[in-house]
Amino acid sequence: MPDAATPPRYPDFLCIGAQKAGTSWLDANLRRHPGVWMPWIKELQYFNHLYIPGHRGWTDAHRRRHAERAIRGVLRRAGEGALDIGLIHAIAAVAAEPLSDAWYGRIFAHAGPGRICGEATPEYSLLPPEGIAHVHRLNPRMKVILLLREPLARCWSHLRMLAHGRADFDFLAAAALPDVLARADYPRILAAWRAVFGAERVMVRRIEDVAREPSRFWHDLAAFLGIPWHPRLEAHAAEPVFVGPEMELPAAVERRLREGLAPVYDRMGPYERFPG
User: Fold this and answer.
1) Of 42, 62, 125, 244, which sits 20 to 30 A from 119 (CA to CA)?
2) Architecture of domain 13-43+101-273
3) Three-state DSSP class for residue 131
């Protein structure tokens, strides 16, 4: 457990999205690798809190909710045994301490020697150039993972997630939300991150290809991250994570999404060949 004298450490890799393109699945399986450390909660929501003002209304609540869930998990696993007070304190600090680079660096200092560390926050795909530059300043050698999903399918899955538990949800209005469409603007996202980190440090995969050849993906990812392939990566890879409810896409909503995504398709070209 790091102490006050332990220097901060910043991620060796980030998964920046896309939302509804397998980031939770990636996170869950990467955690099983003995040479990988990831925070106790998925999606720290740090850089978007700093650089996307519209996100600040919910990011604190997100961290608190997930930190509470993680602490309950620690208590449940301990049962009547001894509690790891240091671990509970570290998880609580994720939600309780003020956000800063020092806060972020203290989290990843828990990785310890001999393991790479990283996190997955799909909202980072929306960062403006100055936000990406901030990421780069913390670790210029960081590697970036971007999972893609066919844009229309991604947006429809996103809408279903937003509608969960809301009987009065307006799918047609939500289909025009800039936040929904921007997360599928892969040409913009990829160009922005490559401009700062270089193409060689940004790994891009279509989730449809991953589903067809999962073993190839995990071997490619291990090589990209500089870690040995491990069977734990694939031991549970067939298990879906956070599968949303099935629902037929209404024709009017599809038309609205296609209208909003038209510039993306124009710049991207055939999805099956993007990014080339």
Assistant:
1) 244
2) 3-Layer(aba) Sandwich (3.40)
3) helix
